[in-house]
Design a protein that fits this description.
Blueprint lengths: L3 H4 L24 H8 L3 E2 L2 E3 L3 E2 L3 E3 L4 E3 L3 E2 L3 E3 L4 E2 L4 E2 L3 E3 L4 E4 L2 E3 L1 E3 L4 E4 L2 E3 L2 E2 L4 E2 L4 E2 L10 E4 L2 E4 L7 E3 L4 E2 L4 E2 L3 E3 L4 E2 L4 E2 L2 E2 L4 E2 L16
Parallel strand pairs: 1-4, 2-5, 3-6, 4-7, 5-8, 6-9, 7-10, 8-11, 9-12, 10-13, 11-14, 12-15, 13-16, 15-18, 16-21, 17-22, 18-23, 21-24, 22-25, 23-26, 24-27, 25-28
Antiparallel strand pairs: 19-20
Length: 228
């Protein structure tokens, strides 16, 4: 349930070697720094629209457009034919695949993004992996640190399992779709093709092909019109 191939089509990233020998997919998060240091060959093949800050330790593939106000600190590897939109903030140890969208005012750090994933509007993605064609609605936040001390745990065989990670956001399987303003709490793992309704607060594991509905009650009352 947590193995890389349970969640991701590894053919949809040029960096599948990251998963070699991994029992659990989240192990990749502690490998990103060293992997990028070894494989990064800084080069900018992109086109800029406006003014952007791009650090020295960054590779960007051909056909990618970087819009005005973007800050890419690096180290980072960004693929081809992506859209890095206005005011996106890409911090340390990020790998972004081909044909991805990183949108307005989105922030990413220590994360792996598979090909064709979309992170398009006001999103935070920290210490996470987003699979092929995963999509975040506007305002989705992936929380990566517990409010209380200790490592992030997941449930395994009905008991808490220590991932060994103080910072661990989410693993989103291929084709997952997360509704607007949802919060995914630390240690979230969603199987392929899951859908989460907007305004949901979610934590934990969910198998593939599931739908999370938010049935929060809505009250409708008559409006009181002031006469003065």
């Amino acid at each position: 349930m947590y193995a890389p191939r349970d969640l991701f089509d590894l053919a949809q990233t040029e960096h599948a070697a990251l998963f070699d020998g991994c029992t659990y997919a989240w192990e990749v998060l502690s490998r990103l720094k060293d992997y990028i240091a070894t494989h990064l060959r800084p080069e900018l093949r992109n086109r800029c629209e406006g003014r952007a800050y791009i650090g020295d330790q960054v590779f960007i593939g051909a056909g990618t457009v970087v819009e005005d106000g973007v800050m890419i600190k690096g180290p980072a590897i960004i693929g081809s034919n992506c859209e890095i939109r206005h005011n996106a903030y890409i911090r340390e140890h990020v790998i972004i695949g081909n044909n991805c969208v990183i949108g307005n005012s989105c922030e990413l750090k220590n994360s792996l993004v598979f090909n064709h994933a979309q992170i398009p509007h006001f999103n935070y993605v920290g210490d996470s992996i987003l699979g092929y064609k995963a999509h975040l609605g506007a305002g989705v936040k992936i929380s990566n640190v517990k409010l209380v001390p200790g490592n992030v745990t997941v449930e395994l065989d009905g008991v808490p399992f220590d991932t060994g990670l103080r910072k661990f956001g989410a693993l989103l399987g291929d084709h997952t779709d997360i509704g607007c303003n949802t919060v995914l709490n630390p240690g979230t793992v969603l199987g392929p093709r899951t859908v989460v309704y907007p305004n949901t607060n979610w934590r934990g594991y969910l198998p593939g092909d599931m739908l999370v509905k938010n049935k929060a009650a809505i009250e409708v009352v008559a409006r009181r019109i002031r006469t003065t």
